[in-house]
Amino acid sequence: MSLAVRITLLRQLTRVDLARFGPVLAEALVTRSHQVKIRRSFVRRRTAAADEAVALYRRLVQDRPGRHEVALARALVAQGSVPDDRTVEAALAQGREAIGYVENATDRNGLVVLAAAQLMVAVQLRTDAPRDALPLADQARETWLRCAPLGARERMALARSLTVLGYCRAALGEPAEALAAREEAVELFRRLPLWTRLKYMPARLEAMSGLADSLASHRRWAEALTLAAGAREDLTFMSRLEPLRFRPTLGNLLFVIARAHLGLREQDAAVAAAEEAVGHYRWLAEHDPVRYQPRLVIALRTLAGTLNALGLHEKAAWAAAEAEATESR
């Protein structure tokens, strides 16, 4: 029986007996919300399933306190983890509520939910508040390790925790620690079954891009380029399918590639990669100016710095002027 048919039947049964069939229906809905599809068109279905599961578990918790809180926390994590569909504030609220239900858990089921909630909150905080995200990412890593042995999905989540940890370490000026975390994350992804790596391609590509950045920061230019080459190919392909989702990662990776070429004194390749990165951010700023116009300004200034380093001062001045004009809009 397909999951969709099962959910339809369980909805009918839940109307008759909420206490008996409600938890089964809610678990099926959480499973639906976790079904990973790259295409944006699937996000709406995942969101609806997660919303229905949370509403159902809230009714069950209200009717029978003390029995369904862990399951409600799991549904809240599913609700807040649907890609690109929640505001940061909503996802943070859902994650923190989930942590509140399971923060004292000692059994494996509760610990798995706690780790997932800690990771979700860390993901939401890392860009604007890496200092706040860092302890949560570290706690998520430690909690996942307490859940061993881990299945493939849980090992992927552990790798994501390390990716976030590496990002925060790098943002806070701890390059050696960032490199170690990112190397461990990429190694975990490499050891996952092929289907799992394909299923969670966005997380894998983010980990590879982060490691390439750390390698470049350690002046390991050739290693950074070798790692970035595979990630660039996959990101270029995925950006054609889901540009708003994948172009930001591709843009960041291209700047890493530009730094590596610059380190190897490959001037033309460095300029080409930096200009391509800016092109992606221009596209993003046109389609979502509120979110990406500030990033375009940063990208243009990064391009100006690259051009200045190569002695192309006239081109650098043009890029810097465009950054100022974009910022003042």
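That was protein one. Protein two is written in the same sequence-then-structure order:
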Amino acid sequence: MWRRVAVVLAALIAGAGLVTGAAVAALRLTAPPERTGLMRDAQAGVTATLPQGWSTGAVAPVTGFTSVVRDGRGALVMARPVPGPVGDVRKATAEAAELYSRLLLMGDRVSVVDDRRTADGHTRALRAEYKDVVNRPAFLRVMLVTRTDRSVLLVGLLQPEDESRRQALDEVMASVR
């Protein structure tokens, strides 16, 4: 009788071990990767850390930009080098924000929601609202990163605007080095 109990007990322990091992393996295989992605743009000379769910794109949707990252739900950040020196960083950022607002937002009402100096340049954010019932508000952030050897223009677009996704977009743009 003790032999039978020992065999059944050993079988139960082995079965529990197999179930535990399979569960651990399944959780590891289905869990999202812990490591975030990285965007590298050799032409612009920048790298950016990407949050989970963001990935690099093959071609930027706007001519002149050398890299693009997307979250797959309507957010993107594009980068391009700026030729020549930038005299007035604030003015250049405002002009770029105006240009890309007309090209990408085309809102019925566009307002500036953020305009400030950063540690290495300037940033301006715009919010577009639409009169029609189809389009929801959109968000555009333009950031000019100035360096001694070259400057870089970053354009972030979010359609539709959402606070948590806006934070992720700002996080990507702030991570540019």
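The mean pLDDT is 90. Keep this in mind for the problem set.
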